[in-house]
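ARCHIVE CARD
CATEGORY: sequence design from structure
SOURCE FIELD: tokenized fold
FIELD CONTENT:
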């Protein structure tokens, strides 16, 4: 039911196909984030129209509201939100990490208080798997512990060891319950310590998962530090399994991630930035609310083929923001998502054609980034 195959390589960059129960995902791929069973400001039909192949759901948020009983009664996330293509669900680990003042970590799991009503809960690896099973996602993530940066070496190691122990418990839950309609990805932790990242990668690989995620990045480190860790995981993770860089969405990071063997990315950046008027283009970023766009009757990006760029001007979209119209956030979110989805589609084509090095140089150069 699950199969990943690499169809082309160019340097360390890979073009692949990931088969799931809800369709084949062509990689490298950017995955829009649907935290609460919705990608903000976007309908499922619009997501399909702009080429989204797979989206994310958030285990922590959906567990608290509306609850797995409601989603289970609807036949899982696909039926609940009318999305026909693949879904990946995170484990809730990052959300629990972000609630540092509302949680307590033990070897068994994490006690936390709901950000909604203050109610107490205890999330274990097994409960995370049970929730994701109820959500019926195509890909489930192991429950992990993410640390803040900077992080002391001993604290990072404790979190890494706990992540590994929890990963084995997640895998055992899958084995015991004979789950065959979901893939399970392990998550590599280890902060910015290359030796810990290498060890975690190797031990997870030895345990055998359907895919491997690189977690704990894009949380305050420099781009150079991120790329150094990706170099480690590229060397140590299995070549025949998909690699997923979690929570990363800047165009330059995606481009450099692909160059270091990453196949999958996700981030709230395109929709969050879109709601605030921050737009991605091939020549860099800008905020549409700036006064200089008041009489700018050109598209957001002359080179973009999205609905917003084909039909509206910067001046009009700026007017929408100043008028408080919801359409502004929708158009900008759509454009940003289209931009990142197209970036990965173009990257894939360049890998297949054996010219990813050229694609990488041109992409970074147009963004004003020295290569």
């Amino acid at each position: 039911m699950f199969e990943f195959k690499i169809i082309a390589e160019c340097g360390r960059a890979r073009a692949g196909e990931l088969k799931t129960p809800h369709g084949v995902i062509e990689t490298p791929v950017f995955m829009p984030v649907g935290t609460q069973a919705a990608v903000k400001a976007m309908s499922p039909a619009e997501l399909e129209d702009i080429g989204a192949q797979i989206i994310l759901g958030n285990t922590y948020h959906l567990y608290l509201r509306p609850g797995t009983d409601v989603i289970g009664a609807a036949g899982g996330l696909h039926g609940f939100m009318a999305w026909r293509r693949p879904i990946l669900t995170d484990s809730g680990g990052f959300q629990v990490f972000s609630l540092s003042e509302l949680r307590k970590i033990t070897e068994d799991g994490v006690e936390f208080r709901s950000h909604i009503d203050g109610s107490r809960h205890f999330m274990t690896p097994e409960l995370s798997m049970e929730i994701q099973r109820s959500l019926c996602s195509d890909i489930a993530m192991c429950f992990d512990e993410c640390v803040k940066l900077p992080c002391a070496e001993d604290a990072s190691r404790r979190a890494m060891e706990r992540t590994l122990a929890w990963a084995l418990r997640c895998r055992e839950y899958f084995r015991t319950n004979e789950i065959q309609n979901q893939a399970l990805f392990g998550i590599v932790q280890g902060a910015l310590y290359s030796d810990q990242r290498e060890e975690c990668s190797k031990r997870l690989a030895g345990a055998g998962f359907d895919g491997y995620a690189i977690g704990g990045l894009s949380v305050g480190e420099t781009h150079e530090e991120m790329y150094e860790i990706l170099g480690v995981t590229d060397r140590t993770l299995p070549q025949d399994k998909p690699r997923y860089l979690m929570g990363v969405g800047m165009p330059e990071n995606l481009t450099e991630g692909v160059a270091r063997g990453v196949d999958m990315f996700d981030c709230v950046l395109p929709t969050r930035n879109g709601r605030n008027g921050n737009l991605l283009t091939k020549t860099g970023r800008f905020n549409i609310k700036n006064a200089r766009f008041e009489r700018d009757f050109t598209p957001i990006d002359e080179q973009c083929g999205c609905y917003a760029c084909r039909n509206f001007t910067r001046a009009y979209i700026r007017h929408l923001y100043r008028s408080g119209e919801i359409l502004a956030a929708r158009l900008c979110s759509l454009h940003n998502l289209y931009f990142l989805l197209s970036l990965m589609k173009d990257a894939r084509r360049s890998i297949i054609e054996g010219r990813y090095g050229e694609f990488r140089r041109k992409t970074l150069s147009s963004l004003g980034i020295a290569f």
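CARD ANNOTATION: The first helix runs from residue 44 to 49. The domain at 28-267 is CATH 3.20.20.105 (TIM Barrel).
SHELF: design records, drawer C
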